Amino acid sequence: MKAFQFRETAGMTGLILRNDLEKPAPGHDEVLVRVRATSLNFRDYIVTHGEYPVGMKPDVIPLSDGAGDVVEVGKNVKTLGVGDRVAGCFFPDWISGPLTQEVFMRSLGGPIDGMLAEYVALPERAAIPFPPHLSYEEAATLPNAGVTAWHALVEAGRIQAGNTVLLLGTGGVCLFALQFAKLHSAIVIQTSSSDDKLERAKAMGADHLINYRNTPDWDQEVLRLTGGRGADIVIEVGGAQTLERSLKAVRFGGIVTLIGLVSGFGKIDPLPLMQRSISMHGINVGSADMFRAMNRAIDASRLRPVISRTFTFEHATYAYAHQQAGHFGKTVITV
Ligand SMILES: NC(=O)c1ccc[n+]([C@@H]2O[C@H](COP(=O)([O-])OP(=O)(O)OC[C@H]3O[C@@H](n4cnc5c(N)ncnc54)[C@H](OP(=O)(O)O)[C@@H]3O)[C@@H](O)[C@H]2O)c1
User: Which residue windows are transmembrane per the record (predicted)?
Assistant: First the structure.
């Protein structure tokens, strides 16, 4: 079968197209998926540079996210059949409940092989049927960015109608968070470095727009927009350059969901956390149960993920370049 492998992790030169890999045979509890589409995340850039903190499988097949058709099932598989359309889980061993160290150590497209291949064998529990109105390309965007946003807003943030949600930037996670926040009738404060992206977020329902380049004191602007109260939930993807301000922008007793570090690692002063009873909740994508709950909401609302651009399999390296150059919506590779 065809697949990409990372021979060395010093950048894109290590990404090698193979035409001679053996098609995986599904185990008794696994299904074989003919992958139709995959999508990229910020994390895949980290993997490319060999900086993934959990470690990497040598010659790994990259990308955690993908969707396709079940073409074969193991003899113990009961809930899936040939022809089912499924997407893979980022953590194939995380079914429900809290995340454990063992589960955390095994994620697709880094510590174990991922989805940038024609065929992938997945445990039955980690192959999640997706809503029928979605294309393979749309479904391929769900496993990482979609589930992470759902986990942060719904599971950790316990979002309620009328809550104010602060979204930092218009990356993949935050665009899903925007869509899920509006599903819950929340008020969205959207930040971005680009006025053009802010206008596009507005068209998706964002209520208040802040350009964080032109308004470096964006935390003060959030307080102004909320009448001094602050946001109920912050989707914190920035890290070093944003965390301190996020803690100022959240309301007394509010929650900052810790998701990303696009501007590097930060340091936190614990005093405002304690004094203002702020919760900080570390997020690691999410479980299969969260994925299924999110899919039910997507199905009921007919929500469609935002895709920036789709590339063919042979042009996978261009997709990586597009993802790094900046985008509005997910970068997809068809297989
Ligand atoms: N913990 C988890 O489970 C988990 C899951 C998914 C992602 N993540 C992490 O979350 C982060 C975002 O991932 P992604 O896939 O959504 O990334 P992405 O699609 O590449 O988007 C990154 C966005 O971050 C915004 N940004 C950059 N610097 C910023 C700053 N100083 N202040 C505010 N926004 C800034 C930019 O928005 P504008 O272009 O609008 O300015 C950029 O588009 C990454 O660090 C990723 O590793 C973590």
Answer: none
